Amino acid sequence: MAAVFFHHVVGDLTCGKPEVSELHDTDTLDDAARAIASSPEGAVPVWRPRATPDDPPSGARFIGMISALDIAAFVAAAGIGGRAMRAVVGEVVQPNPGLLREIDPGTRLIDALELMRHGVKRFLVRKSGSWKGITKRFSMLYNGKWLKNMESTSPSAASSSKQLSSSTGSADKFCCLSREDVLRFLIGCLGALAPIPLTQISSLGAINPHYSYVEASALAMEAVQKIPQDPCAVAVVETALDGTRKILGDISTYKLWKCDYVSAAWALANLSAGQFVIGADENGSTPISVLPEPPISPSSPVEEISSPGRSPRAKKFSSRSIGFQANQMSAWRTRSSFHRGRSTPLTCKSTSTLAAVMAQMLSHRATHVWVTDAESEEDGILVGVVGYTEIFNAATRSSSPSPRTPS
């Protein structure tokens, strides 16, 4: 494996990271929605309240993670509209302490990747301090200084690879590192990882064929029940007579990131999976008149279309109305073109390179990319999915962690 994994430490990735801003299990879902909007991967850690205001962040107080999909599904099940957003986070979050690990900034990157490969999604890392005994002669810029490796001839010093000394008054500054942060770091080290980044994902075994899916005709809430833990996504497909599946879209934490949760919840509770991911036709060809009317509210995900002298037409749903946020669309673009663009799933070909998939995930801030068959005559034939775990496995596939030796 590339030496970059052994020569860099977790502290190298903490430059510029803000201090931890805790979301407590006593906060409301409205608070969680605001926190999720500014966090990576569409999810945020949940903590127990501090015993005293001066208590530092601690892995012992970590409960689990709450995602955009968790909130939308809870509001949909509650059936009381926006009032459900006043519920406390503790009613929604599923306890899972294994999703976060508190680690030393001197931990090697290869060791950190090994933890993420086994399910850890966040690292709690002390921001202030210095360490010794690392394998690299010069660490990356950290805390505004270039830190030289402090070599020692003492056997005890050589074996102590994670000693940390912090200055008084700054010892309680912590930050959270996500898998997105690690992926961004790896993108900057593609040359050091050669030739793996330019290898096709199919050759690297980076395609996970065991993905979750639902038929487009199934209820959207059925998809929520099938959501796996990683990646937190279910493909919405149409299955052909020969058994191949064509992907239409997905229901995922990534797609619901920064959404209008009340409107998304109504859509989850009332629409099919196919209607949820692509919406009803803007021109009225797919009216959803058979569905019960949602409560009238400013955030209602339906539109009532009427004209002078005519009674209101059937109410219709569109993906735009549930608050999916994209870049500002130009005035000349039609509503239907916006609608199609937002429903399109993020896909790559089975012949795509690992570097291309990494760049695709990072540019879209996505947690996964669906993989389609490059040899099929029809576009969109689903063969698998690539997520963070598959990328980290592929990037480190040639080696496993080795014993540390003194520099």
Could you describe the 3D structure shown?
There is one protein chain. The chain has 407 residues and is of the alpha/beta class. Helix content is 26%, strand content 17%. It is built from 14 helices and 16 strands. The strands form six sheets. Strands 1-2-3 form a three-stranded mixed sheet. Strands 4-5-8 form a three-stranded mixed sheet. The protein has a three-stranded mixed sheet with strand order 9-10-11. The longest helix is centred in the N-terminal third of the chain and has 11 residues, at 68-78. Residues 132-170, 280-342 and 399-407 have low confidence and may be disordered.
Number of helices: 14
The Rg value, from CA coordinates, equals: 24 Å
What's the overall geometry? flat
- Proportion of residues in extended strands: 15-25%
What about the largest sheet?
3 strands, mixed
Helix/sheet category: alpha/beta
How many individual β-strands? 16
Give the key terms.
407 residues; alpha/beta; 3-stranded mixed beta sheet; 14 helices; 16 strands; flat; disordered C terminus
In short:
The protein has 14 helices and 16 strands. The protein has helices at 4-7, 29-37, 68-78, 109-117, 155-159, 179-187, 201-204, 220-225, 253-256, 261-270, 273-278, 335-343, 354-364, 388-395; strands at 23-24, 43-47, 62-67, 100-103, 122-126, 130-132, 163-165, 174-178, 213-215, 233-239, 245-252, 302-303, 316-317, 347-349, 368-372, 382-387. Mean pLDDT is 77; it is low at 132-170, 280-342 and 399-407.
